[in-house]
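Moderator note: this is an archived Q&A kept for reference. The question asked for a predicted structure of one protein chain; the sequence and the answer are reproduced below.
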Amino acid sequence: MGTVSVPQAAARGTLEPRRWTLHGLNNGTIFRMTVAGVRWLPKAASYGIGDSGTWLASRLMPATRAAIGDNLRAVFPEDSRAALERRARRTLQAYARDTIDFVRALSLDDECATALFDPPPEYRQRFNQLLAQGRGVILVMGHYGNWEIGSVLMSRVLHLPLTIVGMAEASPDVNRLRREIRDRLGVDTIEVRQSLHTALEIRRRLSDNGIVAMLMDRHLGRDRVQVTLLGRPAWFVRTPALMGYLSGAPLVPCFIQRTESHPAFSVFLGDPIVVAIDRPRDEAIQRAAQQFADQLTARIRRHPEYWYQFYRYWDAQQDSYEGLG
């Protein structure tokens, strides 16, 4: 799922920013081969090929490996460069396995899909309580763990309608494949086009008491709000908190990570975040964004290998600060 961009950006004449997500792993050929191969290979064989492929990728893409290591310095400030790059290889391996697990889950029936996750009745009760308020739910996630498999959880296990709001992928092939996958799952997609139309579509889904999912930890252009992540200044996308402020829908952090035992995935629904309407709008939005950043920080510190940023994340933040003038 790509980063959500600002609905008002086009109206303000915002210039197209650097595409930080355009990297060697965001490749249509690789993604297409993965989807095709995983459909018929046994799980162990898929993992074996994935592990070998990511080892090779870490050798052939030293800039990506170094970028992941640089990102992780915020968690491990005392580590040597070599130690950080070893951690980067583990991150690449975890990402490959998460991709394999997601593709394999697409062919499962409801019963087998349910067995992937730790007790689903708990999530069903949480979502029912939130939806009973009648304002919809905004699921907020970061590039942490297997956020894509959340669409399987919602459609095949909980049988709840889901709308994913995202920026188009840098690769047209990857973008087409992801849309086809979501269509198969019955998951709606709102592709950000940097216009007011996007905001109106989100509001309509929330007014219908729907569930809207958005990634929050990568900004684009002027759709940004300042937070502290892992003790460092960063920019998150502002739209989810703004939609919460305007609609009254709670922001619900969601983190899904692979386990080494059965069930295959643990789901962590964080503390709901209500964007205060009794405060000035910008203050309320910033406070809500920071609450999510704090919950994301806690997950990353616990399992840094599941933080999937394959470019120099902190450099992107610095570029944004320099562009404020």
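Archived answer notes: The longest strand covers residues 251-258.
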